[in-house]
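User: If only I could read backbone structure tokens as easily as an amino acid sequence. Underneath my words sits a plain record pairing an amino acid chain with its backbone structure tokens. This is the protein in question:
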Amino acid sequence: MHMLHFTVGQVLGLEILEAAQPQLVSQPGPDAHDELVRWMHILETARPEGLLPGGEFILTTATFLDQFTQDPDAGVGAANRFMDTIEQTGAVAVVAEILEGREFVTEALTRAARRRQIPIYLLHQRIRFVELTQYVHENIAAVRLQEVETDRRIHEAFTRLSVGSASTDRIVSEATALLGCRVVWEPAEQQTATTVVAEHQVVAGDETLGRLSIAKKCGTDESLVKTVLERASQAVSISVLARRSQQEMRRSMASSLFYQLRGGTELSDQEVQWRLAETFGLPRLTSTRWWPVVFRIWNQQRQGEELLNRLSGVVLEIFEQYGTEQKLPVLAARSEIGVVDVLLPIDELSSPDEFFEAARARFAARLHGGGELIAGVAHEADSAKRAGERLIDAAQIAQVAQAYVDSTGRRQAYFVAQDLGLRGLLAALRHDEHLVSFVATELAGLLSEAENRQTFEKRLTLLDAILSTDNKAALARSLHLSRPALYARIGRMEHSLGYRLENNAEQRTATHLALIAYWADPDAVYSALRQRVGE
């Protein structure tokens, strides 16, 4: 479909004008003949201020210059004033009919037009102005009518799609068909820096949802392209918001169902499978091996609740996309701010590690490295119901894993309970005042005799090595010390601690526990130790 317009070049190409052999006397720009003609106006006044709203093709005989027959310079001045006004009002072209015997008018107009960029033509043959204006106005009116009709068809097409809850793909296909060139939809998070010839941002309120664009130039009129992209953008905005509303409703239902499963339910295994399939819009669930998984959103800058809630939505979108691509039922729901529960059918996964790595990589890419996912996995279950009951265990593992990663910096695709052990537990409890007090009690003796923190932590490193081995000879060699020198150091350390390390298994365990807890959060514990020694 192509929008018709009447341009300066098309008017000049009419037979009635071509036959008169118009003479160009100005220096118009390269695009001047492509300007649209809004109206054709016959003008015979020397000062047309206020008569022209813009876009006119001017026809004149310039009779107002006849009074300057005896004063050529004054005639050029009057012609210049006339042309100045024409340009200022936004007229698009001037054709002046100057017949034989009015050479002084030809000279005045030629001199006034010489350096102007608006197309200015002189005719030396008589033409029927009324016939020309009537023909042009009829064509302009036809163009206007066609524009109205085209706008109506475009409006009806996209209104029909919006009312029918059409998908984004369907809307884009309609826009492509209307324009005869490929229209592309790019969501905001997937936009590229590709150069385009036309685009329109799709917005909802103050949020940019994405853009509709055309990458390659096509023969369709620019105004039609603009109109179609504008209306298509409105339809896409409605479609995206409607899909979000449906998603949020389904996600809310999923969260309620997961909450019910966590606390235990009287529903049978089969009923739970049916409820999950219905909630997630799946035909049926047939897996017999399930992993209960909990993902926590984490980075070193503590996010607010609003941002974490939005990022939870990003995680759910990632799982939905991955499930669609892999034809895999990834059942996921929010459980709390920044936490997403997942029931994962591992007998349908080619590689569980691949799923976790893909989730982490996609999340990092969406946030441009500004966050990551920590996953906790509980024991495998033989039904979705039992896996749901074990989500509480997975949540505890994920919480401890987050503290462990924050404390140690050690990351992996996912964590199970065995990966965390005692160090994970102490990392989770590292801010507990009872644990900090316990560590301070156990290690305060070493701090009181240390000159500074560096010396203190060197003594802790030696103490850790002593507690980790019973082979003192090997330890002495690793420290490049003689055995007597090592025993002397051990003696001084026992003196500082106020107890012996040999033959006291319970005390050794307590000291070792204090060391692990110290290294889980050395800044906080060291500060507490300094306060205790200061008292």
